[in-house]
From TrEMBL:
Protein name: GTP cyclohydrolase 1
Subunit annotation: Homopolymer.
Annotated positions binding Zn(2+): 109, 112, 180
Example GO BP: one-carbon metabolic process
Top-level class of the enzyme under EC nomenclature: hydrolase
Keyword field contains Transcription: no
Record organism: Croceivirga radicis
Known catalytic reactions: GTP + H2O = 7,8-dihydroneopterin 3'-triphosphate + formate + H(+)
Keywords from the named record: GTP-binding, Hydrolase, Metal-binding, Nucleotide-binding, One-carbon metabolism, Zinc
EC number: 3.5.4.16
Sequence similarity: Belongs to the GTP cyclohydrolase I family.
Amino acid sequence: MDKEKIEIIGDNHIGFSVDTPMVAGAFDKTDDQKITAIQHHFGKIMEELGLDLTDDSLSGTPYRFAKMYVKELFYGLNPSNKPKLSVFENKYGYNKLLVEQNITIDSSCEHHFLPITGHAHIGYVPKEKVIGLSKINRLVDYYAHRPQVQERLSMQLLKDLQNILDTEDVIVMITTKHLCVSSRGIKDKDSFTTTLEYGGCFKNDRKREEFLGILQHVAL
Ligand SMILES: [Zn+2]
């Protein structure tokens, strides 16, 4: 891909598929094998930048960096880390809107590998199944901990929750700040980005307004 096209895709934050693009055999190596390989390569990047890796302050950075990538920032790439999402029978027959709001988003943009931070707000109208509230937070945390495009993150959460809850009646709103917009390029410190994905009853304007009305009472 030529360099101009690379810049355009990054600045427009274009993503190409709902599934995170992964190669076959992405998890053939263990986490420890990946950490060892990334440690080596990141050390080379630091050397290319002219940094002295024999300095006491810098010598541990390639290992810290590699461990942070595999075990923390991008743990959500590995399906074996997906949280167990047990659902329960909706015994009390609750069939109105339920909103879990201000769920922390700690993610990274896949075009620049810089932080995306903010909140997700998720609503659903239960049918036969309900889910433990903290499970929604765990699912957001899992999908956020990948190199991401915000639009894809919203769609992955919507589709997964629709499957788990066995209903189309789910809405996902995400509001974030992207460091690649605030700290490089245009360097806009104040703008933020909102995405809204929904299905089922939320295609109805009034149902969507009910959800958005609840969110108006919280700091985004
Ligand atoms: Zn970016």
